[in-house]
Amino acid sequence: MAATSIDTTTQGGQILAGASGGKRRLGDRVFSNVVIVSAVTILALLAGVALFLIAEAQPAVFANSVDLPEGKSLVDYIAPLAFGTVLAATIAVFLAVPLGVAVAVFISHIAPRRLAMSLAYIVDLLAAIPSIVYGLWGIFVLGPAAVPILKWLTDHLGFIPFFAGPASVTGRTMIVAGLVLAVMILPIISAVSREVFSQTPRRLQEGALALGATRWEMIRMVVFPFGRSAVVSGSMLGLGRALGETMAVTIILSGSGVISFNLVSQANPSTIASNIALNFPESSGLAVNVLIASGLVLFVITLIVNMIARLVISRRNLQ
Amino acid sequence: MSPSRLLAALALLAALVLGVTACGDSGGDTTGGGGGGASLSGDIAGAGSSAQQAAQEAFIANFENANSGVTVAYDPIGSGGGRDQFIAGGTDFAGSDAVFDEAELPKASKRCGPGDLIQIPDYISPIAVIYNLSGVDDLQLSPDTLAGIFKQDITKWNDPVIAKDNPGVDLPDTSITPVNRSDDSGTTENFTDYLHQAAPSVWTFDASETFPVKGGEAAAQTSGVVQAVTAGDGAIGYADASQAGDLGVAKVKVGNEYVGPSTEGAAKDLELSKLDPKLSQGKYVLAYAVDRTSKDPSTYPILLVSYLIGCTQYDSPNTAAIVKSYFNYIVSSDGQKAAAEAAGSAPLSAGLMKKVQPAVDAIQTG
After folding, report:
1. Min CA distance, A185 vs chain B (Å)?
2. Residue B119: φ, ψ to 5°
3. For B317-365, how does the pLDDT look when each residue is reduced to its tens digit (9 = 90+)?
4. Which residues in chain A have Cβ-Cβ distances shorter than 8 Å to B228?
5. A52 Cβ partners below 8 Å, 6+ apart?
6. CB A241 within 8 A of CB A185
7. How far apart are CA B289 and CA B76, in angstroms?
8. What is the spatial distance between Cα B129 and Cα B119, in angstroms, rounded to a whole number?
9. Cα angle B85-A295-A242, degrees, rounded to a multiple of 5
10. Of these four, A54, A273, B346, B358, which has the most CB atoms within 10 Å of its CB?
11. pLDDT tens, position by position, A114-137
12. Could you write out the three-class secondary structure of A253-303?
């Protein structure tokens, strides 16, 4: 045991010495080059996308609003879409985070090992379903099933602006779209949280239990604080996916360009991504530039969300 | 060992990429020479209207069967994209639900220079007003009523205005859910053009690919509209007549009668329509101003016309020969029949065939 450990350290020392001595092995050189190239490629890709968006959006920004589709100014055109994008994603995160965290805790701390393993597989499997299948599920199953519930909501909770109604007769509403998005982002949130929850130091958990904490108190006081940054970053990853989700929303949402907090009616704001998917095929000329300009807005929104997430996580880590 | 394996993997990747690009370069060209011969070989590519997709697939299948050496590709990317690609020279022909507008016409003509631009109707499809209202099997709507419904002025099915169009029908107190296309589409443009012309006092909007009234139920593509109308009691929408399925189909008022969608009615309406002189600039550029206000009850004025776009001259005589032969098949009664079977479209009437044939004959193959 001791001999081998000494052996490895001396080997490590030799490698280090070799690396610093200028005579690097081929493997090291290839490895470092590959890694550097990869990193630069990612940056270049991102910069390329940003440049493309800016260059192609520019004609729409400087165009006369009369020439733009529907004769609206660029801001009037994009504002409802940006609103719808953020609204749908917010609903999704709002619904998915509590559920995702609960599933993660159940898998990492409560369920018997065998059940936990299979449940984890199943939740991960949700991520493998193509978004168009979620869309079809939403339009054929969830939407029609939601119709009576939407009607009940407007009848009994109509005083809340979210449920003002009139209730949609097809179920293709913002709340259903948000619900489907929530299911789609559930696996990300749950997987990231689960990984970190299960790494909570055993001595802390056992310490809490030894001090007389119940299992719930132990989870609340030890596991959650330990995994908080993971929950935040998982949620932000999920939010990012919800913001950019295209096909499912395109199929489900009855989007008609209004700004409204009414989640149960047929008149909903569309989202940026689904609007691009819907209108790109029949667009030409300036209309394409307008769509790309809306894409740029989505890019910026996603960037801001990710930056906020980084900020939150780094602040947690400092504490 | 790991660096060599890595290098090997990289080399393999590079080889793969090179191989794929090499393949991409070699494909897609027509085999030059041999123009005007009896047996054609080579390939042509077109893109455009998704409304024409089913018809184009039928054209292609039959045409390739008859000419075994020929490959025709049609990419249903949408009318706007089809016109753009054609202007850019990326495709040999295009299909479009909208004609070239005044800004595009010069560019399209230039693309065909020194030859002429061809734009002829090749696909006519009646658009049905579909509805889902339990207990009502027959629904009759005048243009003003239809416009009022889609403008969301009329919100209940038992509104006196609807009752006036449907004497003796027991209309329920259900709310009306008008369903429109959420994507820009030629169907919407033709439907709104009909409302604009037939009900000008109610429908104060212009014809447009984007549905102009906000706040209705909006669904993607024809299938989405059909699905939404099927799902919602009290819903009403518009879609290709061939896609109406089991849904109720409203009759619209033409002259003094109520007329349901029919292929014959649609074809006849187009035959009686006049050309738009501003957009028909060019010997072989036919842009119809579809007659939406026809009083003849044997016509059905809510229809979509899609156009076939090409040139009279191509760089390669072989391409020209294939395009000519393909276009000839499309406008023939055989081709139109095949499209009618595959897509439920209305075959061009004999009168229309006579009008489009000179354009196809003008394609120079020698």
Report:
1. 23
2. -145, 105
3. 999 999 999 999 999 999 999 999 998 899 999 889 999 999 999 999 8
4. 170, 172, 254
5. none
6. yes
7. 24
8. 28
9. 125
10. B346
11. 999 999 999 989 889 999 999 999
12. CCECCCCCCCCCCCCECCCHHHHHHHHCCCCCCHHHHHHHHHHHHHHHHHH
Query: So what's the pLDDT on residue B1?
Result: 43
Residue pairs between chains A and B whose CB atoms are closer than 8 Å: 109
Q: What is the pTM of this model?
A: 0.79
- The Cα-based distances of A160 to A90, A146, A154, A165, A262 in angstroms read 18, 18, 9, 10, 9
A172–B177 CB contact, under 8 Å: no
* Beta-strand relationship, B117-132 and B303-311: antiparallel
Type and span of the H or E element at B256: none
Could you tell me the CA-to-CA distances from B90 to A198, A224, B29, B48, B66 in Å, in that order? Answer: 56, 58, 12, 12, 26
How many residues are present in chain A? 319
Q: Which of B289, B296, B291, B197 is nearest to B254 (CA)?
A: B296
A residues 18-57 closer than 8 Å to B (CB): 26-27, 30-31, 34
Give the per-residue pLDDT at B51. 85
* Residue A241 to residue A2: CA distance in whole angstroms: 50
For residue B41, list its beta bridge partners.
Answer: B69
For residues A27-41, one letter each, b for 16 or more C-beta atoms within 10 angstroms of the residue's C-beta and e for the rest, the string is: eeebeeeeeeeeeee
pLDDT of res. B36:
39
Beta carbons of A74 and A167 less than 8 angstroms apart:
no
Q: What is the mean pLDDT of each successive set of 10 residues along chain A, which is 319 residues long?
A: 44 49 79 95 94 92 80 87 94 95 94 91 90 93 92 90 86 93 94 92 93 93 91 90 91 87 89 90 83 94 87 71
**Cβ of residue A80 closer than 8 Å to a chain B Cβ:** no
Query: How many residues are present in chain B?
Result: 366
Find chain A residues with C-beta within 8 A of B79's C-beta: 282
- 8 Å CB contact of B214 and A251: no
Name the minimum distance, in Å, from the CA of B296 to any CA of chain A: 33
Q: What is the signed CA dihedral for A161, A166, A168, A169, rounded to 10 degrees? A: 150
Quick check: A306 contacting B, CB < 8 Å? Answer: no
Backbone phi, psi, residue B335, to 5°: -65, -45
Q: Answer whether A283 touches B (CB < 8 Å).
A: yes
Whether residue A170 and residue B235 make contact (CB cut-off 8 A), yes or no, is yes
Q: What is the CA angle B119-B125-B130, rounded to 5?
A: 145
Q: What is the largest CA-CA distance in chain A?
A: 81
Counting Cβ atoms within 10 Å, is residue B252 exposed (0-12), middle (13-18) or buried (19+)?
A: buried
User: Are A259 and A83 spatial neighbours (Cβ–Cβ below 8 Å)?
Assistant: yes
- The minimum CA-CA distance between B122 and chain A, rounded to whole Å, is 19
Count other Cβ atoms within 10 Å, centred on residue B186: 25
A14: which residues sit within 8 A by CB, 6+ positions away?
Answer: none
